[in-house]
Design a protein that fits this description.
Blueprint: H1 10-17, H2 23-33, H3 37-48, E1 105-106, E2 109-117, E3 121-128, E4 133-140, H4 147-161, E5 171-177, E6 180-186, E7 190-192, H5 193-196, H6 205-224, E8 227-228, E9 237-240, E10 248-251, E11 258-259, E12 271-273, H7 281-284, H8 291-307, H9 317-326, H10 332-335, H11 341-350, H12 362-377, H13 380-383, E13 416-418, H14 419-439
Antiparallel strand pairs: 1-2, 2-3, 3-4, 4-6, 5-6, 7-9, 8-11, 9-10, 12-13
Length: 440
C-alpha cells in the first residue's frame, strides 16, 4: 500500500482549481486530492467561491493509484473527481437539509427508491448520471445532522474509502447537497447474513467456513490500516451475489470504526459503542481494545452460523451483557455434532474472555479457516452437512435481490449502551455468580 502523500498547500489547490498548475504537478496534486477528504473539502470550497471556474479534469492519462482496472466495481477510464463535500470554517447550516422522503437528486445522483435504513442513515438506490451506473446512496438522517453525527458519518466514508479490498464494500464518492450529507457506494445484490440465518436450507459447514474466512480477510485489510471495526455482527455482513457465485462476503458499516491510537474519547459521552451479544468483554467494559476485539465478534458470528444460536443470548441487553460477563457458551459440537472438532476449537479460542488467549491476528484466523476449508474439500460428505435448523428471527423479511441494508440496520439502541448500565449489569452478574457458589 502506497504511503499517503503530504497535503499540498492552499496556493497549490487554488492553482489546481484554476487549471494553472504544470501537468506533472497537477497530476500529483490531483492524485492526492482524490484520496484525501480534507483536501477535497478545501478544493470544493475554492470552487464554490468562484462559480465561473471551469470544471476540473485530471491530467491526460490519469488513473487512480492502486485500483484494479479489471474490476467492474470502478471504471478508471471514466473516473473524474466530482464535487466533493463542502467544508468551511463557518458553522454548518442544517436548516436547508432535505427531508429524506423528499429527496429526488443529490449532486449527480438521481434517487430511484429507498432500500433500507437504520439508526444513523437511510440507503437509496440511485443512478450516477455521469457514469451511467446504479449505486447505493447513504444519506444522513435529519435527526443526526448535528456535529457529532456529521463527524461520524464522514469518518465512516473516509475510513471505508481508504480500504480497497474484495471483502469490504467499495465507496465511490462523498458529498453534500443543500445541507444533506451523502456517500455513494457499491450497489450490492443479495442479502445480509442476518437474513440468511433465518432461511432454509441452513448453511452448510463449508459455507460457514467460507463466510468466516472472507470476514477474516476483510478484517485483516482493515487491521493493516490500524482500524478496528467494533461492530461485526450478522447484519453488517453482506452476501453479495452480483459478482461471485454463489456469493462474496462484504463487510459493511465502518461508522463505529476507530484507529488503534484513537481511543482516548470513546467513553467520554457515557456510552459504550457496539452491539450487546457480539462485543468483546473488554469493549463492553469500556476499556482500550485492539484488533482482537473484532476477532471475538467474529467468533460470535461463527458460533451463530455453526449452531443456529448466539453464544451470549438473552431477551434484552442486560441479559446479554450478564451472559457475556459470567457465562461460557456450550461447545458448538454439543449443539451441532456436524461441526468439525478443529472448527470448534477455533471458535472457542476466538470467544476467550481474555484477549491474550485469542488468535493474535485476523490473517492467522483466515489461514486456519482456509486449512479447514481445504480439508473439507477432501471430505465432501462433511462439507455438505447442514448446520441445523435456521434461527428464528421475527424481524426477518424476504430480501429484495437488489437490496442493500444500511450497515446500522439494527435499532440505534443496539449500538450504544450507557456505561452505567454496563457496570450495573456486571455487578449484578458477579453478585449472582458469587451467591450461587456460596449456596452450592
Amino acid at each position: 500500500m502506497t504511503a499517503k502523500s503530504p497535503c499540498p498547500d492552499t496556493e497549490a489547490l487554488h492553482r489546481l482549481a484554476a487549471n494553472e498548475l504544470p501537468p506533472d504537478e497537477a497530476f500529483d496534486v490531483q492524485r492526492h486530492v482524490v484520496r484525501c477528504l480534507k483536501c477535497k473539502h478545501i478544493l470544493e470550497s475554492i470552487r464554490d467561491s468562484a462559480a465561473a471556474l471551469p470544471a476540473i479534469t485530471p491530467p491526460s492519462g490519469f488513473i487512480r493509484p492502486e485500483r484494479d482496472t479489471s474490476s467492474n466495481f470502478f471504471d478508471d477510464q471514466k473516473y473524474r473527481p466530482t464535487r466533493p463535500m463542502v467544508v468551511s470554517d463557518k458553522a454548518a447550516d442544517f436548516s436547508t437539509a432535505q427531508p429524506p422522503e423528499t429527496i429526488e437528486r443529490l449532486g449527480r445522483f438521481r434517487v430511484l427508491r429507498r432500500l433500507g435504513g437504520g439508526g444513523m442513515g437511510i440507503v437509496y438506490e440511485a443512478e450516477d448520471t455521469q457514469l451511467k451506473r446504479r449505486v447505493a446512496l447513504k444519506v444522513l438522517k435529519p435527526d443526526q445532522l448535528d456535529e457529532a453525527g456529521r463527524t461520524r458519518f464522514f469518518k465512516e466514508a473516509e475510513i471505508s474509502a481508504n480500504i480497497e479490498h474484495d471483502h469490504i464494500v467499495t465507496i465511490y464518492d462523498i458529498g453534500e447537497e443543500n445541507g444533506t450529507p451523502f456517500l455513494a457506494m457499491q450497489l450490492l445484490r443479495g442479502q445480509n447474513l442476518e437474513q440468511r440465518l433465518s432461511q432454509k436450507p441452513p448453511l452448510t459447514i463449508a459455507e460457514v467456513v467460507r463466510i468466516g474466512k472472507e470476514i477474516a480477510l476483510g478484517l485483516a485489510a482493515a487491521h493493516q490500516r490500524g482500524l478496528i471495526h467494533r461492530d461485526i455482527k450478522p447484519s453488517n455482513i453482506w452476501l453479495d451475489t452480483g459478482v461471485a457465485k454463489p456469493f462474496r462476503v462484504k463487510i459493511l458499516d465502518f461508522g463505529l470504526a476507530r484507529n488503534n491510537n484513537d481511543y482516548g474519547n470513546l467513553t467520554k459521552t457515557g456510552y459504550v459503542m457496539g452491539t450487546p451479544g457480539y462485543m468483546s468483554p473488554e469493549q463492553a467494559r469500556g476499556q482500550t481494545i485492539d484488533n482482537r476485539a473484532d476477532l471475538f465478534s467474529l467468533g460470535c458470528v461463527l458460533y451463530e452460523m455453526a449452531t443456529g444460536r448466539e453464544p451470549f443470548a438473552g431477551p434484552d441487553p442486560m441479559a446479554r451483557l450478564t451472559a457475556l460477563a459470567v457465562e461460557e457458551p456450550p461447545a458448538p459440537r454439543k449443539l451441532n455434532p456436524s461441526v468439525p472438532e478443529e472448527l470448534e476449537e477455533l471458535i472457542l479460542a476466538l470467544l476467550a474472555k481474555n484477549p491474550d488467549e485469542r488468535p493474535y491476528s485476523a490473517e492467522k484466523v483466515a489461514e486456519f479457516l482456509s486449512e479447514i476449508g481445504d480439508r473439507l474439500a477432501a471430505t465432501p460428505e462433511i462439507a455438505s452437512r447442514s448446520t441445523g435448523i435456521p434461527r428464528s428471527r421475527s424481524a426477518a423479511s424476504p430480501p429484495d435481490l437488489e437490496e442493500i441494508e444500511d450497515g446500522s440496520a439494527s435499532a440505534e439502541g443496539e449500538n450504544t449502551v450507557p456505561v452505567w448500565f454496563v457496570i450495573v449489569c456486571l455487578i449484578l452478574a458477579i453478585l449472582a455468580f458469587v451467591g450461587v457458589q456460596i449456596l452450592g
